[in-house]
Design brief:
By secondary structure, the chain is an all-alpha fold. It contains 9 helices and no strands. The protein is 71% helix and 0% strand. Helix 1 packs across helix 2 (27-34) and helix 4 runs parallel beside helix 7 (114-132).
Length: 178
């Protein structure tokens, strides 16, 4: 079965935004690479910003499901540490270009911007997911783990430190054991 044109558009936009950024990727480039007409684009999305939000929404759902699965399958250590194993796998993949949400929040820096708000909401949902797997007396560690994860993402992207998630996991384990 062929992929619906709307999803082809979203997938192409995701790939281009991932590689080049949101502002640097124009609608014409997305249309040319996807083979989707401008009329089809505007049938589904009123603006580039609506397309960005849909890309982020789908990425959010995928990442939450991936992280939840990693936590459920984690048998060797504390469940919340699975975040760092998932990051390590991502950092060593061919499609690692950094975090879509960090980039979106940076490119749309105004707190009231819907793209910025969605990016912040995504990060908060990861923190909430982690807190679910932490005991009551260690709930504060969810924020610390998210901080370590975001730092590892930036180190892997900016400095090419592909083992940053392993280092962050080591620090997270120390925090758990205190």
């Amino acid at each position: 079965m062929a992929t619906p044109r709307k999803q082809v558009l979203i997938d192409t936009a995701y790939s281009l935004f991932n590689q080049h950024g949101y502002h640097a990727t124009g609608i014409d480039k997305i249309l040319a690479q996807s083979g989707v007409s401008k009329a089809t684009l505007y049938k589904h999305f009123k603006s580039k910003e609506e397309l960005i939000l849909e890309v982020l929404r789908q990425r959010h759902e995928l990442l939450n499901a991936t992280l939840e699965k990693a936590i459920q399958e984690n048998r060797s250590s504390h469940p919340a540490l699975a975040l760092f194993d998932a990051l390590d796998n991502w950092f060593h993949s061919e499609d690692f270009y950094g975090c879509n949400f960090i980039r979106a929040g940076g490119e749309y820096p105004l707190n009231e911007d819907p793209i910025h708000r969605f990016s912040a909401s995504h990060k908060d949902s990861i923190r909430q997911l982690l807190s679910h797997y932490l005991p009551e007396d260690q709930q504060h560690l969810a924020s610390a783990f998210l901080l370590l994860a975001d730092g590892a993402i930036i180190a892997a992207q900016i400095r090419g430190e592909k083992d940053a998630a392993k280092q962050a996991k080591m620090f997270a384990r120390q925090l758990l054991n205190q």
